[in-house]
Amino acid sequence: MRWGEGSGVSADAVTGVCRPPYLCPVQTLENDLKNALQTAAQAVFGQDIPASALALQPTRKEFAGSFTLVTFPLTKAFGKGPEQIGQALGEWLKTNEPRVRGFNVVKGFLNLEVADAEWLKLLHALLAQPATAPVNAPGVPRRVVVEYSSPNTNKPLHLGHLRNNFLGYSVAEILKATGATVTKANLVNDRGIHICKSMLAYQRFGQGETPASAGIKGDHLTGKYYVLFERHYREEVRQLEAEGVAPDVAKRKAPLMLEAQQMLQQWEAHDEAVVGLWKQMNGWVYEGFDQTYKNIGVDFDKFYYESGTYLLGKERVEEGLQKGVFFRKDDGSVWVDLQAEGLDEKLLLRADGTSVYITQDLGTAELKYQDFGYDSSIYVIADEQNYHMQVLQATLAKLGKPYAAAIHHLSYGMVDLPSGKMKSREGTVVDADELVRDMVATAKATTLEMGKIDGMPEAEADELFHTLAMGALKYFLLKVEPKKRMLFNPEESINFQGHTGPFIQYTNARIAALGRKSQEQNLTGGDFGSVTELHETEAELIQHLAAYPAAVAEAARQLAPSIISQYAYDLAKAFNRFYAEVPVLAEDNVAKRALRLALTARVGEQLRVSMGLLGIRVPERM
RNA sequence: GGUUGUGUAGCUCAAUUGGAUAGAGCAUCUGACUACGAAUCAGAAGGUUUAAGGUUCGACUCCUUACACGACCA
């Protein structure tokens, strides 16, 4: 990974120093404790703790304490056993460091208990900054293009696209949260043989049908003809094979395939009729995509079209030939030799001069760099393209492009169904629009059954059902680490209880209800400076709140929304524990009540912001 | 065949990048709504982390080999 080598990284981001515009309070507490540990080590052992051993980790739930130092690595340098070291450091801290209220040593682990006053200080520091303040994330690039979605215009979006869209959107938002300048780009694959297939089928069987006349979304209508092509084509192949033609020959020589190829050539030759049909059908598809994108809540700053970049790609191929890094074979086709890079020879331009996928990728990369001068260009693409992306990067490097090293493939695993892999040609896909519709229906049924939104206006209720459905779906797809394959079981996978989006949404609805009630009862605000002691669940909540910057920074470094989803879940969980254990509105002590209200409101905001990074909205009631 | 990814509780996923008794949710069982929303909380049960070696204070994590599944490249 090449994070941080780009020139646009700010000085603060590089040094890791956290300054006011950035959100970083827990780091200061951690740093204070680390400094104290260093002082203790000097005082007790006359030595420094090496930087590699100075990492504090959150203490596990089953032990007392908040931060833990692992003392095993110190045994050699200090010439003492791990327990001895822990005990000695702990005792020194307890008597000399007011931040440390107590400690315990379990084997090689020194667990530090932080004084309540310190948590209260931390809470004040947190509240002094808006929850939306950018997060200090050393090593994360500053100018980023995130390319995602990148659909083909011959069929509607399916479940696999949803994972892609949610990942891309979320990664972009997470990077933005670190203060990076992010462009969301969508490279539309609007040309090629697959497009001609649906065009050809439409010409044959369409009889002038339009989305309006058929009452079907444009992308679905076009997809219908794509499937129709495949069906007739397979029939032709079967017939040829029955006549004794070899299977691979039959596939190439079936009349429909030959016609589709001819159509592609006509398109490249700007044949008026073909281009007209192409424009018409692509227009339908874009209308359909727009609706879907809007419905699932993703957006783009910039659209690229392969029809507009493949010529630029051909220029790059020419450039490579002139530089002598590409070569031409006897049949006229152009190749690049990447064997030195551990890859293979790769075709860049066919013998007939037509482009292949990678031709247009070369053009698009160039164009993106011209437009945005990124230090990092992220491609959200399924892992079946791993090899292709390596080839692309290596080829750009051969061309000596400065941006080659900035390319990063965010590779994600396929979404499997219980019945196996989705295949659009065979119709075994989960259609995105249909899935969302089903989810909304389920959310509606579940919510109405709960009976908690009686009297809510219909429009508002419909929006709520949509918010809940998308929350469940997005959370489900984003909580899994991207590179892992995942299983989607339509009946069982989507829950509204447990480790889900709606669990977190519900937590926020409770918080919002507390907010409403405190308004009604005039219990708002107030100073809580007089509070000196905290309930265990309160301290825990503060620690979770303060962990937000670290979670965002890590998510940005790893391009892993799953880290954010885990964070939001932990925070909601901690709040629900707090909620079950201590009264908020019913607390008699005015200062304590004020503190709990402030804490509650902040948790709500933090949940809203965190879920926002996943593209999930949180409702006020549900 | 070559390259590469994955393999953790019945199921779906975690594990702060080498740290404690491997954690959550679903499903199963038990308890809690006249303090603020039970889509919640508290608890029980569920594991030889695919297998066998190795590295070390310490391995789901790193190394070697094998097995299973997937993807890509001929």
Structure notes:
The protein is α/β, with parallel strands linked by helices and 622 residues long. The protein has 3 domains: 104 residues, Arginyl tRNA synthetase N-terminal domain (Gyrase A, domain 2, 2-Layer Sandwich); 284 residues, 3-Layer(aba) Sandwich (Rossmann fold), CATH 3.40.50; 182 residues, Isoleucyl-tRNA Synthetase, Domain 1 (Orthogonal Bundle). It has 22 helices and 14 strands. The strands form 4 sheets. The chain has a 5-stranded parallel sheet, with helices on both faces. Strands 1-2-4-3 form a 4-stranded antiparallel sheet. A 3-stranded antiparallel sheet has the order 8-9-10. Helix 6 links the parallel strand 5 and strand 6. The longest helix has 25 residues. The radius of gyration is 29 Å and the shape is globular. The protein starts with 10 loop residues before the first helix and ends in a 9-residue tail after the last helix. It binds one RNA strand of 74 nucleotides through helix 15, helix 16, strand 14, helix 18 and helix 20.
Task: Label this structure with key terms.
Gyrase A, domain 2, Rossmann fold, Isoleucyl-tRNA Synthetase, Domain 1, 5-stranded parallel beta sheet, 4-stranded antiparallel beta sheet, 11% strand, globular, RNA-binding
